[in-house]
Amino acid sequence: MYLQTSSTGATVVPNVINNEAITLPESQLFPVVQGSTGKTIHYASSATVEVGIRAVETAATAFSTWKRTPVAERRAILLRFADVLESKLEDLTKRVIPETSCDDRWPSFEIIHATKFIREVAASASSVCGSIPPVDVPGTTSLVFKEPVGVVLIIPP
């Protein structure tokens, strides 16, 4: 795991990019508070603009490889990921409950459904295809290619 320790000995969950924990100044840390107890369970790192740019650039690099990955290999990767996620159900549940103060059944519900959705995406990987839509100009044919468009950065509030 990528956990770090602050100068005060507090546990810090860092940003991780390309399998590398990013260490930021302690001024970038914020407490993750368990809602049901009011206790700080660990600290997390806010991202800087530079970290955001690095994350997008790294994702774009990974995307350039992913879009050329054969469908059968993509499917296998997604299925392995679902298997790993499912195998870590108990550990993930223990980690989610303190952070969200949710009922102890909620994380397993989410994880089980996530693995089902991942497997569904894996199963449909080979069914993505283009189409030939009708056009208004006589003697003209239109062809639509479906292909990955790239990285999307979303920053939730």
Task: Provide an overview of this structure.
- A hairpin with a 2-residue loop joins strand 3 (15-17) and strand 4 (20-22).
- The longest helix is centred in the middle third of the chain and has 18 residues, at 49-66.
- The chain is extended, with a radius of gyration of 21 Å.
- 41% of the residues lie in helices and 14% in strands.
- The chain has 2 domains: 1-68, no CATH class; 70-148, no CATH class.
- The protein is built from 4 helices and 6 strands; from the N terminus they run E-E-E-E-E-E-H-H-H-H.
- The protein starts with a strand and ends in a 34-residue tail after the last helix.
- It has helices at residues 49-66, 71-87, 89-100, 106-123, and strands at 4-5, 11-13, 15-17, 20-22, 29-33, 40-45.
- The mean pLDDT is 89.
- Helix 2 (71-87) runs antiparallel to helix 4 and helix 3 packs across helix 4.
- The strands form 2 sheets. The chain has a 4-stranded mixed sheet, with no helix packed on it. A two-stranded antiparallel sheet has the order 3-4.
- With 157 residues, the chain is an alpha+beta fold.
Largest sheet: 4 strands, mixed
Percent of residues in beta strands? 5-15%
Strand order of the largest sheet: 1-2-6-5
Distance between the termini: 25 Å
General shape: extended
Poorly predicted regions are: none
Question: What is the total tally of β strands?
Answer: 6
